[in-house]
Amino acid sequence: MTEFARAVVFTAPETFEIQDIPIAEVGPDDMFVAVELGGVDGSELHMFKGELPWFNSRAPIVFGDEIVGRVHSIGMAAAARRGLAVGDRVTIEARWPCNDCRYCASGQYYLCSRNVDGRGYGTITAREMPSLWGGYATHVYVPKEALVYAVPEDLPAKTALVACSTLANGLTWSGVAGAGAGKVIAIIGPGPQGIGCALASVQAGAQVIVIGLAKDRERLAFVERYGAKTLAIAEGESHIDLAKRIRHVFGEIDAVIEAAGYQPAKDLALELVRPTGTIVHVSIPTPIEQPLDWMKMLFKEITLRCPVSHPNMVPTAIALAHDMFKNGVDIGEFISHVFPLERAEDAIHAASYRGDEVPIKVALDPQMRV
Ligand SMILES: [Zn+2]
User: Which Pfam families does the annotation name (predicted)?
Assistant: First the structure.
């Protein structure tokens, strides 16, 4: 008898449909994973609203590229190669390497030159069999090439989900910023990614200050519990005055992680970072083009870095989250809101921080009923 998955399918801009999609017979090299929890990202709102024409043309699409679940069915060869069996707990990375281009060879498979159209979870059309290419569903398909990592049984699903996405990004990006003992790192923008960077920078031994707006107060209070200092600023305050004020308290800032995406954040980052320091740009910029004072970049001898995602970092992130969990610190509490599949649109709006609520991070639970 054919089994069916339930999936949230993007069929056109601003349109999600819940569809029953057959779970195909598993091939020898493949598997299907039953999703425990799928992450929702604020940036998915742009996709949902139809702002990306190349994306619209791929509809129908099952969204979702942050996935924690259990092996539902697995081919013989996949089971042998991956050392996995039905029921094992796993997380699957959004993209996978071709292992045949210079970027994959160097470890940055998010820039794979054979994957120029961004194939991966949440972006492959559901017209391509077996259709289940996203985490907004009860089940996802896992091809031979996909990167799959074991998740400890005692780690809550929320904790694993934060580890494989937000914390993995934070570890990668704070590493690029040079976070470590004796370093002072400023992070602008206390969204999930900024909070992940703060947590990772604190863990690396850096002194960390997270800068947000007055409306971010709850998020700033949250990140203080993880050992970061915070500063709530008024919108419109001059970046020059602000930078002076921050330096007066914290001294020279070795690196600034710009996780807000707005022009004032760029201006503040450039003013705040010390000469020969590093600015790490990790935000989705709004608007996409923003001027930068290149003269100041030159005369402060600034290094500008733009790391993409978190290649090869998920196992480290899961191990760190597991250690912290065993020591009584559960980063699963980053996930403040969980929605059923039927409310995927509400989940995206919540995650994009545009509703009335102030979530930290949002997830979909396919087993949750409306
Ligand atoms: Zn490649």
Answer: ADH_N, ADH_zinc_N
